[in-house]
Design goal:
723 residues; alpha+beta; Aldehyde Oxidoreductase, domain 4; 3 domains; seven-stranded mixed sheet; 22% strand
Length: 723
């Protein structure tokens, strides 16, 4: 396989991360035309939509509009909690509503120039202030309405339990009673916000608002939506999920019960039928020949050879370099170096990708689970040759996402099949097609060199990463603005270890299979070499790995996280660590500091992972229960891929096509989790992805402590480690 090398650039890291981000999200309460508004059928027509983020019903319920996707992380509860805090609403009568309105208030301004997108664990950071402002502005407008009708000064009013209360007398009006008059009040530009000492909801562990619907089965996922007179489609795709049809024979299929259409779609063949199983069984009888496609015989061996060659090729200098790493490595007393490897991985969501489309002329409605209505509306508009505002998107709950829930192909297929059948059509990819058509986590090789002085202190760090970036594939417009950089290059040199001389190179490998975002993204492959080499340096000098880190780190919050992890795990320098390994991450994009300690136990000459200890400081915590759940999920996700997940290709097709072959963590193999959160006064950071990248280096370091061997190829259990 050839590696295409892209031109180097000296783009500034801050400019790169903030390009087109503007000055931040300007809160506006003007109700713009809802581009592709996706109001559900049970909208209450006489609810008072006070601003973009909230409405008050005649029954005095508060509805909080959430444009961020709920994929299990609990964001619909956390964001609602933020707004309810400032508004003073009754939590038991506050609920959320999905909105896929693509309006400016819902944009994530620091993500790709400003789009509606749930990703990068950025939802709470992005909408913490706008949600507070929306709640505070509505509170001020409700108080102004009460003051106006009672001729009492506004300063004598407060809000609590969805009521405006006159404090001297105790007289009270419900929000519903005041909502219409409140909407006529001037919108305050800078509404006063509560002091943190006044918080009664933020910082509290409240149960998820979506829990009841998920327990009773009424929660609607993308795969669940039914449209009147809807047809169903099953699709089979060719090599690499991108080959086109050269010929097909559908004579058997067209005579089978319920079959309406057999249609060639851009990358495969589809059967449209009255019921899904009819489509599936008919599809099995269709004989297909695919056009040859470049790299159609792609295999994992090809990828590994290309990635290895990339480590010796010219690449792109990445942001964050300082000093003269090459010269300092030449004069270092010791140089610790090693190569690390990660395979491709599938998202493995429980709910396969689906999309329901109904095309009527230039108008198009889509029902699906999506992380970005903006991107998916754009994909649909490109198919139809219309403006994205003509695309109406209805978002649903997601049965797992991890970066998977947006993409062109399933939307394109649903639209084309709806046009062909002149009816609403739901496309469901089988598990096998879902894996074939996945946007995989990139395979990667990393080579790191760590220079030490005679006392074992770090003097230089150099790292090369050979991998595929997903911007070029999924976000070509954004990539055109920042190329040749792509996602693997970001944060390659980040650490708290005070290294004065450091440099990094990113060598792009253009993967034949699709590559997309994946939980933890670039931190997964960028954290592994530095945290592994730090451990190797400590052992090389006979030092305790935890104490060695503490000797290098001056940031007090980082030190506190590591110290608390040591206390939880019973780590004693030089005494009880023969079965333990540690890794640490401080990521400013996530505003997070995370330490993970892996504890092993030997059983029948094998190492069993007994416990994962995790301590995290991500600033102000909105809901400690949700934060802990996100950390626990991230730990298990990271443990699964570090231990056993690997996707391989032969002749253009994945070798693993279903859960029976794709080896993911099962409940009976899950370790004990001990998780603790250290809260600080800083602005809220992330929890959804932050634990995932830290597990692999901690597990690798624990394996060395237990066996005296270094295992540098992931997943460890499949490449030599006694697990």
């Amino acid at each position: 396989m050839e590696i295409e090398l892209l031109k180097a650039t000296d783009i500034d890291r801050r400019h790169f991360l903030k390009a087109a981000g503007g000055a931040g999200l300007a809160l506006s309460f003007t109700l713009l035309p809802a581009c592709g508004s996706a109001e559900s059928d049970d909208d209450t027509a006489d609810s008072a939509r006070v601003n973009a983020f909230l409405a008050i019903t005649p029954d005095n319920d508060v509805e909080v509009y959430i444009a961020q996707a709920e994929m299990g992380q609990g964001i619909t509860t956390g964001l609602t909690q933020i707004l309810a805090e400032e508004l003073g609403s009754d939590w038991d009568r506050t609920r959320f509503r999905f909105s896929t309105e693509r309006r400016k208030e819902f944009l994530s301004p620091d993500l790709y120039g400003g789009i509606v997108l749930t990703g990068a664990s950025a939802s709470t950071q992005t909408f913490f202030l706008p949600m507070r402002q929306a709640g505070a502005a509505a509170r001020a407008m409700l108080i102004a309405a009460a003051a106006e009708q009672s001729s009492i000064p506004e300063a004598e009013f407060t809000t609590n339990q969805s009521m405006v209360i006159h404090e001297p007398t105790g007289d009270a009006w419900t929000f519903a009673e005041l909502s219409q008059k409140a909407m006529l009040q001037p919108v305050p530009k800078n509404p006063p916000l509560k002091a943190r000492s006044e918080f009664t909801l933020i910082g509290q562990s409240r149960p998820r608002l979506d829990l009841a619907t998920k327990l009773d089965g009424s929660a609607k996922y993308g795969i669940d939506h039914i449209v009147p007179e809807m047809l169903w489609a099953a699709v089979r795709h060719g090599p690499l999920g991108r080959a086109s049809i050269s010929s097909f024979s559908s004579s058997k299929a067209t005579g089978m019960p319920g079959v309406r259409k057999v249609v060639a779609v851009p990358h495969g063949i589809a059967v449209v039928a009255d019921h899904y199983w009819q489509a599936v069984k008919a599809l099995e009888t269709v004989e297909v020949e695919f056009e040859p496609v470049e790299a159609s015989n792609f295999s994992t061996d090809d990828m590994r050879l290309a990635l290895a060659a990339g480590l010796t090729a010219d690449g792109i200098d990445v942001p964050g370099a300082k000093g003269d790493a090459d010269a300092r490595l030449e004069t270092a007393s010791d140089v610790i170096e090693a190569t690390y490897e990660m395979p491709m991985a599938a998202h493995g969501c429980i709910e396969p990708v689906t999309c329901t489309a109904f095309v009527q002329g230039e108008a198009c409605k889509l029902w699906l689970s999506t992380q970005s209505p903006t991107l998916d509306a754009g994909y649909a508009a490109n198919v139809l040759g219309v403006d994205p505002s003509a695309i109406e998107i209805h978002n649903e709950f997601m049965g797992g996402a991890f970066g998977r829930r947006t993409g062109r192909e399933h939307i394109e297929e649903a639209i084309l099949l709806s046009q062909a059948a002149q009816a609403p059509v739901k496309v469901i990819w089988s598990r096998e097609e879902d894996i074939l058509m996945d946007q995989f986590r990139t395979g990667a090789m990393m080579h790191g060199r760590l220079g030490l002085d005679e006392d074992g202190r770090l003097v230089a760090y150099s790292v090369e990463v050979s991998a595929t970036g997903f911007w070029q594939n999924m976000l070509p417009d954004w990539y055109d603005r920042v190329k040749p950089l792509d996602i693997p290059a970001i944060g390659m040199l980040d650490s708290d270890y005070g290294i004065e001389h450091k440099k990094g190179r990113y060598i792009p490998y253009l993967s034949p299979p699709r590559i997309g975002p994946w939980r933890g993204n670039m931190v997964n492959h960028n954290l592994l070499p530095i945290e592994s080499l730090i451990d190797e340096a400590a052992h090389h000098h006979g030092l305790d790995p935890l104490e060695y880190r503490m000797s290098l780190i001056t940031d007090e919050r980082s030190r506190a996280v590591i110290e608390r992890a040591a206390e939880l795990s019973g780590w004693e320098a030089g005494k009880t660590n023969s079965t333990r390994g540690i890794a640490f991450m401080h990521d400013e994009r996530w505003r997070s500091r995370v330490a993970v300690i892996v504890e092993l136990q030997e059983q029948d000459d094998r190492q069993h992972v007994a416990t994962l200890y995790c301590v995290c400081d991500s600033g102000l915590v909105i809901n400690p229960l949700l934060a802990k759940q996100n950390l626990e999920g991230g730990l298990l996700f990271g443990f699964s891929w570090a231990l056993q997940e690997e996707l391989t290709f032969t002749d253009g097709f994945p070798d693993q096509r279903n859960f029976g072959g794709y080896d993911m963590l099962r409940m009976d193999n899950a370790p004990r989790l001990v998780v603790e959160i250290i809260e600080s006064s800083e602005e809220p950071g992330a929890f959804g992805e932050v634990a995932t990248p830290v597990v692999a280096p901690a597990l690798g370091n624990a394996l060395f402590a237990a066996t005296g061997q270094r295992f540098r190829r992931i997943p460890f259990a499949k490449h030599g480690a006694p697990l």
